[in-house]
Specification:
The protein is mainly alpha-helical. The chain is built from 13 helices and 7 strands. It starts with a helix and ends with a helix. The model has no long low-confidence stretch (mean pLDDT 89).
Length: 370
């Protein structure tokens, strides 16, 4: 009878230990997941890539060019190529033009130069004429199922990045060829997605520069990705500021207005949306959104525009969400489609549960000994 009673007591105590450990682990896992998401996201993405593609990094470098692996094949991803030198190119342009802009990051040493990347793009992509405009389209030659894209598709973000690289190469080499290619890159911003460009006209008269542009889809079907649009605006701004072309000033104003008038649609209440297809930004992209809104506010000031109050307003709002990131993380766990945040949370929960369980058992053991 005493043994049964002791066994029952142990079971009851173990159940209490389990519940106590779980209750303590739940909020700790939430806070640690929210504040270390970027680091953990990078790790778990590597694991995912290894399982799916057999490599921790989906990029391969050959002769200084970055290829991206999709379904086991190598493709040129123009955004990845330009990003090899993008920060260096922006820094060079900002210094040359005496611009005071919030940088996206600090340039790192790379195996290729701004000129080498610009030369690669010139050799790899041909000039076309669409609706009477000479353009260079940095097309993607692989399908992208996330947005139901079939090759070839195009990206305003890639065009903006390329324009920045070409402009910097022009200033470095004093060669008009690079300036001409910068013009051809941003010329695609004048052409709607349905005609093979990247521009989406909005009902209020402003324009959206689509990161995932598919000529086969209607304007309403475009995902309107926030960071991709603003990265495209970066290239447009640098081109206008250097050349002072009035047609691009008008386009630039309309593209900034698009964010000012629609940014409320990207406010989740505790975080920011990545695009308008219901997908939330992860921590890294949310930080980028904050920097980008600061950038747009600076562009508006350089253009001497008035009535763009939503830019600083939502900059402050999104920045405030970052200081309360556990609330944003919790909202994303409830609503998000990205399974990696569940993996991050569950792995942290498991770790804290083990640590707290050991501590609880030791504390109780000491209590019994006394």
């Amino acid at each position: 009878m005493i043994r049964i009673r002791n066994l029952h007591e142990k079971i009851r105590l173990n159940r209490k230990n389990f519940l106590l450990s779980l209750i303590l682990s739940l909020p700790l896992a939430l806070f640690s997941s929210a504040y270390t998401e970027e680091i953990q996201m990078s790790f778990w993405k590597g694991v995912k890539n290894f399982i799916v593609y057999g490599t921790f990094k989906r990029g391969e470098s050959e002769s200084g060019v970055l290829f991206t692996i999709y379904n086991g094949d190598r493709y040129v991803n123009p955004v990845h190529v330009t990003m090899r030198v993008l920060l260096q190119a922006e820094e060079y342009l900002s210094d040359y033009l005496n611009l005071n802009l919030e940088p996206y990051g600090s340039p790192k040493e790379t195996a290729v130069s701004i000129t080498e990347v610009a030369d690669f793009l010139i050799k790899h992509y041909d000039t076309e004429t669409i609706r009477g405009r000479e353009v260079v389209r940095l097309d993607y030659q692989f399908d992208y199922p996330i947005y139901d894209l079939k090759a070839p598709w195009y990206s305003g973000m890639a065009q903006g990045h390329a324009a920045i690289v070409f402009l910097a190469a022009y200033l470095v080499n004093d060669n008009e060829v690079y300036l001409d290619y910068a013009r051809k890159s941003v010329a695609l911003f004048h052409i709607p997605t349905t005609a093979g460009g990247v521009m989406v006209p909005l009902e209020d008269g402003s324009v959206w520069l689509e990161e995932y542009a598919d000529p086969k889809k209607s304007f309403s079907e475009t995902p309107k990705v926030l960071n991709g649009h603003i990265f495209a605006v970066d290239g447009l701004f640098y081109y206008w500021y250097l050349t002072r072309d009035p047609s691009y000033r008008d386009l630039l104003i309309k593209s900034i207005l698009a964010v000012n008038d629609n940014i409320l649609k990207y406010d989740t209440g505790f975080w920011s949306y990545y695009g308008l297809k219901g997908n939330y930004a992860h921590a890294g992209y949310h930080k980028v959104h904050i920097k980008q809104l600061s950038r747009l506010n600076s562009y508006a000031n350089y253009l001497m525009l008035e009535g763009y109050e939503n830019l600083p307003k939502y900059f402050s709002k999104f920045e405030g969400y970052s200081s309360l990131s556990p609330l944003g993380f919790l909202q994303r766990m409830i609503c998000q489609r990205n399974n990696l945040i569940y993996i991050i949370y569950i792995s942290n929960l498991f770790l804290f549960f083990l640590l707290i369980s050991v501590c609880v058992v030791k504390v109780r053991e000491k209590g019994f000994r006394k």
